[in-house]
């Protein structure tokens, strides 16, 4: 893992393979979301470890989501990749959308896995229910984080968003040490990233002209499915892939299927017709 400092923030990356570039922009809470996926992709794969998740000195200054997008752009510029397929998950999808708007020259296509359940993206009919479930869990997590109790915050949030068996999944995929590292990473998420998500104004999806593949887990809540259907309806060039047996943990539990969705996205962008639907 290489590290570099951009605008005073330290971020990490790995850069493997050769050919068409893919940039992996992980979700919040912890930085290891795309570890299983990275080795399954062809071409040149750049796995970015976002500022706040490198395990270095704590980040004291707020980093807006546009700042994370600017870090991704600066990394691609430094590596001289040219336009890349940008793969993201959960809150990473917000960063990827911002990157596509701010630096369209660097984004050949987007793969958005399980975009975050935030009001600005949700179907309005789902907002009240999501506030009462995910919002309540996040509120409890934020209260615990404010007391300095990050393990309780980590459990309160992930139990609702990822399912009550999330710890078993993390141990199975990342090991006991990986789970411990994920809990340490979460401090940045609750103290810095969650407030930044609350301040983020999503770009008008109609302005995102790059091809977009939206990926959802079949076992994810209906609100996620409707959010993705809503995005697919307004994005100019969008298609949808549903992964059977998966939920919000799909980059960890179904990396091969996600790799297949990324590969088929590349084929579609190269000339096959793109459509909203399931695949």
Automatic annotation (TrEMBL):
<keyword id="KW-0378">Hydrolase</keyword>
<protein>
    <submittedName>
        <fullName>Alpha/beta hydrolase</fullName>
    </submittedName>
</protein>
<dbReference type="GO" id="GO:0016787">
    <property type="term" value="F:hydrolase activity"/>
</dbReference>
<feature type="domain" description="AB hydrolase-1">
    <location>
        <begin position="23"/>
        <end position="260"/>
    </location>
</feature>
<dbReference type="InterPro" id="IPR029058">
    <property type="entry name" value="AB_hydrolase_fold"/>
</dbReference>
<dbReference type="InterPro" id="IPR050471">
    <property type="entry name" value="AB_hydrolase"/>
</dbReference>
<dbReference type="InterPro" id="IPR000073">
    <property type="entry name" value="AB_hydrolase_1"/>
</dbReference>
<dbReference type="Pfam" id="PF12697">
    <property type="entry name" value="Abhydrolase_6"/>
</dbReference>
């Amino acid at each position: 893992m290489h590290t570099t400092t951009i605008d005073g923030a330290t971020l990490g990356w790995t850069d493997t393979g050769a050919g068409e570039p893919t940039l992996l922009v992980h979700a919040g809470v912890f930085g290891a979301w795309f570890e299983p996926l990275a080795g399954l992709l062809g071409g040149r794969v750049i796995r970015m470890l976002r500022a706040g998740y490198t395990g270095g000195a704590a980040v004291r200054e707020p980093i807006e989501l546009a700042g994370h997008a600017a870090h991704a752009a600066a990394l691609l510029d430094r590596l001289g990749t040219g336009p890349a397929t940008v793969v993201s998950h959960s809150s990473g999808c917000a960063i990827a959308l911002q990157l596509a708007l701010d630096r369209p020259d660097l984004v050949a296509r987007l793969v958005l896995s399980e975009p975050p359940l935030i009001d600005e993206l949700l179907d309005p009919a789902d907002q009240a229910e999501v506030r009462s479930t995910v919002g309540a869990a996040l509120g409890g997590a934020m209260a615990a984080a404010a007391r300095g109790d990050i393990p309780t915050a980590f459990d309160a949030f992930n139990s609702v968003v990822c399912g009550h068996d999330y710890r078993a999944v993390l141990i199975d995929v990342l090991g006991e040490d990986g789970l411990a590292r994920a809990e340490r990473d979460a401090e940045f998420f609750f103290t810095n990233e969650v407030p930044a998500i609350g301040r983020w104004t999503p770009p008008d999806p109609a302005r995102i002209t790059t091809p977009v593949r939206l990926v959802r887990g079949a076992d994810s809540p209906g609100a996620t499915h409707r959010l993705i259907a809503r995005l697919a309806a307004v994005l100019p060039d969008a298609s949808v892939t549903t992964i059977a047996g998966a939920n919000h943990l799909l980059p960890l539990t179904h990396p091969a299927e996600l790799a297949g969705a990324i590969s088929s996205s590349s084929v579609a962008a190269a000339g096959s017709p793109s459509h909203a639907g399931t695949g």
